[in-house]
Q: What sequence folds into this?
């Protein structure tokens, strides 16, 4: 025996289900551009069979039930994107530092340090060919140019290095801040789950923060049984069940690690490692410049000291300073360039010493690995260039790889508007059909009531 | 593969970005004309350019040294030739004096001429070069080397040589020791003058040989300067051709091939345009939204 209102109650569950599907479609369309948003879908199931028996053989169901609203998410892809984000983060930060270093030594018109070095030794050649105060003045100027070009190149590289070190500190702070956010989202998700709901939007937010964190360092995510995330960077725990941990603020670029005094935590990837690699490279450039400046200064002084100037002074220095930070022409020469010695006799035309100094420009130096000063600088420029080129190449490779993984994630979890529009039509038609069925039931019941009352 | 809408647009974005980057690089190369704007564009090339620029700048320095040497050699050669002519004139006077038929007044006149020649010889010994330096003073180029004093020439220079580098291993000596040449010639003239004044005809005949050898010494020295000048000329030519080669090598590395640059630019521009058109079309017509009319 069938109850007259059973059908209406069944259809009411259908209207509620289709309404929810329309709402979720609306939510999906609204978040088509939201980073980290996962496409949501309504999972429906048939309602449990009611107690009525139709005839003696079969029973009808009582409509449809909204089982859950879930995120479409592939956890494996999420995990592989962490490593890719870290590699991309490393390549990006390194590219930015090495590009700046390249701009410092960029010398397309031969106006930089290389030509200053050439010019300095040529000035001695000129003085040897044509002794006199005009060329003594020229030697002084060329000496000042080479000294100031070396010191200013050095200080630009040093400035770049200290700003890169500053970025390391702020990256560490950012890691701390993301860890705090993940820990508090862990908390919120736990308490929402305790209330019996599935906090999809909080989970999306937490995944999004993990993605952002993963570009800063090599992080690993483990999920506890209760759904909380444990996040670590190598042997350093960033977030665990007791909350966010304190990230050490001390770092050592030569060992590529963070340290809290007691322990050290290696940094393997991410923006943090890119910045540390850049600092190490910049340190190398600085030490090369120091070697160059020190060698120019000591080789020039060794020869210059054998000269006797017009007032009989001998054993003097041409350059003061021993490295790229303090190379300068000796003040006695700056004050009076006519005291520049050119030979061992003090005679104006004795240019033996000037000639030897001019020849130094093309002589190979053991301190410079058997290269001349210009060649040594050329090798440094080539080193800076290939560091820059490697970083750029790695950046473009990592960008492409990361794009692929992001596409795969987006392919699974992203919103497709065409699909949503199709769903929209389907859900709308379903809703219309259910409403139409309610109306039919209504007519059936109405006609029954009319015939009874008549 | 399922294509999400955000993925569709982020792919457009990446494609446009990459096309734009290529266009920018092509534009930069075409507008600067430089193939290496940063060492990272071509690290090995950047190093080569620095080394080649270094060699070129040194060769240019040698060229300037050689041109300086040429000026000095020319001045020295002219002065030596002049000194040779002076001795030639003295030789002519000695020839006529050696005939023994000259009057006392003509002998006095000849002695006077020799005195004038001695003054000219002293002046030739004190010739200065292109930068006001004394050419025959050894290395004491700022000291006047010769002055006549009681019948002989006093030398205040030294015996140092002046050398100019014309190449890494080409050191050129551009002076001749002035003292023996000029003091010897001066003494020959002084002897001749004394012999003319005393009318010692047989001595004058002997003097002729000395005068001739003094003249030859000047001519020989001038010849040495001439052959050094030849070396200067051939070094200059060799350097010029090396500089030309280097400049063309440097230019090959640093300058873009304009035809290539224009082609690259045009193809980068087409690619960029195509990327833009795809986005324009996809966003205006290719979406289900455009085909569902309101219900």
A:
């Amino acid at each position: 025996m069938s109850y007259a209102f059973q059908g209406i109650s069944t259809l009411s569950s259908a209207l509620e289900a289709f309404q929810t599907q329309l709402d979720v479609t609306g939510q999906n369309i609204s978040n088509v551009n939201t980073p980290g948003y996962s496409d949501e879908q309504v999972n429906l199931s048939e309602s449990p069979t009611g107690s009525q028996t139709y005839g003696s053989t079969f029973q009808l169901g009582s409509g449809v039930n909204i089982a859950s609203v879930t995120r479409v998410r592939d956890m494996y892809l999420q995990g592989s994107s962490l490593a890719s984000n870290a590699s991309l983060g490393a390549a990006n930060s390194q590219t930015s530092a090495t590009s700046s270093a390249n701009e410092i030594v960029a010398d397309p018109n031969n106006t930089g340090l290389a030509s200053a070095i050439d010019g300095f030794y040529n000035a001695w050649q000129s003085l040897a060919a044509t002794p006199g105060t005009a060329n003594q003045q020229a030697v002084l100027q060329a000496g000042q140019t080479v000294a100031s070009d070396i010191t200013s190149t050095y200080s630009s590289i040093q400035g770049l290095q200290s700003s890169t070190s500053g970025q390391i500190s702020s990256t560490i702070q950012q890691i701390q801040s993301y860890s705090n956010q993940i820990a508090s989202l862990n908390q919120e998700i736990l308490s929402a789950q305790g209330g019996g709901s599935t906090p999809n939007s909080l989970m999306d937010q937490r995944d999004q923060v993990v993605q952002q964190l993963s570009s800063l360092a090599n992080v690993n995510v483990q999920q506890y049984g209760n759904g909380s995330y444990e996040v670590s960077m190598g042997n350093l725990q960033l977030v665990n069940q007791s909350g966010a941990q304190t990230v050490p603020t001390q770092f050592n670029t030569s060992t590529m690690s963070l340290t809290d005094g007691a322990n050290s935590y290696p940094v393997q990837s991410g923006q943090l490692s890119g910045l540390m690699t850049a600092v190490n490279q910049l340190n190398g450039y600085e030490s090369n410049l120091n070697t160059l400046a020190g060698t120019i200064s000591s080789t020039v002084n060794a020869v210059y000291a054998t000269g006797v100037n017009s007032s009989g002074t001998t054993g003097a220095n041409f350059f003061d300073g021993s490295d790229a930070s303090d190379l300068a022409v000796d003040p006695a020469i700056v004050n009076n360039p006519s005291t520049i010695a050119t030979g061992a006799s003090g005679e104006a035309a004795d240019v033996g010493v000037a000639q030897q100094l001019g020849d130094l420009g093309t002589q190979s130096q053991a301190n410079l690995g058997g290269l001349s000063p210009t060649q040594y600088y050329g090798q440094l420029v080539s080193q800076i260039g290939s560091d820059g080129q490697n970083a750029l190449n790695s950046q473009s490779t990592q960008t492409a790889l990361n794009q692929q993984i992001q596409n795969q994630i987006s392919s699974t979890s992203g919103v497709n508007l065409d699909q949503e529009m199709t769903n929209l039509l389907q859900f709308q038609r379903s809703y219309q059909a259910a409403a139409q069925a309610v109306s039919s039931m209504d007519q059936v019941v109405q006609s029954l009531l009319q015939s009874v009352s008549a | 593969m399922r294509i999400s809408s955000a993925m569709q647009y982020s792919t457009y974005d990446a494609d446009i970005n990459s096309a734009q980057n290529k266009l920018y690089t092509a534009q930069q190369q075409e507008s600067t004309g430089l193939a290496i704007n940063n060492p990272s564009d071509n690290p090995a090339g950047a190093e080569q350019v620095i080394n080649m620029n270094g060699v070129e700048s040194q060769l240019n320095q040698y060229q300037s040294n050689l041109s300086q040497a040429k000026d000095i050699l020319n001045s020295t050669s002219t002065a030596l030739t002049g000194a040779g002519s002076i001795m030639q004139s003295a030789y002519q006077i000695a020839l006529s004096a050696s005939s023994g038929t000259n009057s006392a007044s003509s002998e006095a006149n000849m002695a006077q001429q020799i005195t004038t020649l001695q003054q000219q010889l002293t002046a030739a010994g004190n010739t200065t070069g292109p930068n006001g330096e004394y050419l025959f003073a050894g290395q004491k180029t700022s000291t006047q080397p010769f002055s006549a004093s009681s019948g002989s020439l006093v030398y205040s220079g030294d015996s140092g040589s002046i050398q100019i580098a014309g190449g890494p291993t080409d050191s050129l000596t551009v002076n001749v020791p002035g003292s023996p040449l000029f003091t010897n010639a001066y003494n020959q003239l002084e002897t001749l003058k004394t012999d003319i004044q005393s009318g010692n005809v047989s001595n004058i005949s002997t003097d002729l040989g000395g005068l001739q050898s003094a003249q030859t010494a000047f001519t020989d020295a001038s010849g040495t300067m001439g052959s050094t000048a030849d070396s200067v000329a051939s070094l200059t030519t060799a350097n010029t051709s090396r500089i030309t080669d280097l400049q063309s090598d440097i230019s090959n590395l640093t300058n873009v091939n304009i035809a290539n640059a224009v082609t690259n630019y045009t193809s980068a521009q087409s690619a960029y345009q195509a990327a833009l058109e795809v986005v324009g079309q996809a966003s205006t017509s290719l979406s289900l939204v455009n085909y569902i009319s309101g219900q």
